[in-house]
Q: What sequence folds into this?
């Protein structure tokens, strides 16, 4: 298994500001992802965080709004830029561990973001 | 376009009885299905999965059934325990489970098991 930590666990932010969320894993991973869960909705994949290169974004998500970094195998950040109330969500990182299969995807505890 | 749907927002069952959680999908390219369980303030944890080449997979108290023709899967929990109370998410992917990370999730079903 893996222990995944996210910082901050929650935050309340003002419209127009930006927030950077950190994800740290205690094991070597192959893949890291960022998801969003809007209130009452399902989890939606935002992007795949690629080590040392630009993230791969899903349809409807763009780098200017959600810049992602992954400087090494075990750490990634997601920034929510120029926030609006519609960005109020839970943001989760997830990982696939090195040497393990697809269904061993582990999720972090999530960051609950409220935008006023 | 909700490709994975869990039409029951909540389910309440008595301890010891069977819990049946349902999930429907529309994308015929999905060939790998998973169930995740989520407690408050925690991330989802993997529970059980099934490939489209099977119609049943069992792991202890948990069994997942897949009906490809109906594009429907269900999770059976027998017997249900109070500790099973959580939100259950159905998820699906293409590529036989090799398309790492590209999971499409349903909205979740809140299961409450009463003592």
A:
């Amino acid at each position: 298994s893996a222990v995944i930590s996210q910082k901050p666990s929650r935050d309340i932010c003002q419209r127009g500001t930006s927030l950077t969320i950190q994800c740290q894993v205690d094991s070597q991973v192959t893949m890291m992802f960022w998801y969003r869960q809007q209130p009452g909705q399902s989890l939606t994949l935002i992007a795949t965080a690629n080590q040392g290169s630009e993230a791969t974004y899903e349809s409807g998500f763009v780098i200017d709004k959600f810049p992602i970094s992954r400087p090494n195998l075990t750490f990634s950040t997601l920034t929510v830029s120029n926030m609006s109330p519609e960005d109020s969500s839970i943001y989760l990182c997830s990982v696939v561990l090195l040497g393990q299969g697809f269904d061993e995807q582990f999720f972090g505890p999530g960051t609950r973001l409220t935008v006023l | 376009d909700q490709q994975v749907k869990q039409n029951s927002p909540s389910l309440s069952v008595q301890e010891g009885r069977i819990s049946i959680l349902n999930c429907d999908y529309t994308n015929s390219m999905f060939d790998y299905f998973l169930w995740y369980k989520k407690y408050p303030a925690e991330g989802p944890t993997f529970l059980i999965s099934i490939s489209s080449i099977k119609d049943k997979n069992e792991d202890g108290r948990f069994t997942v059934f897949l009906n490809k023709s109906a594009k429907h899967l269900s999770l059976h929990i027998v017997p249900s325990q109070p500790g099973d109370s959580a939100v259950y998410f159905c998820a699906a992917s293409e590529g036989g489970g090799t398309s790492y990370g590209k999971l499409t999730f349903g909205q979740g079903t809140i299961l409450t098991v009463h003592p």
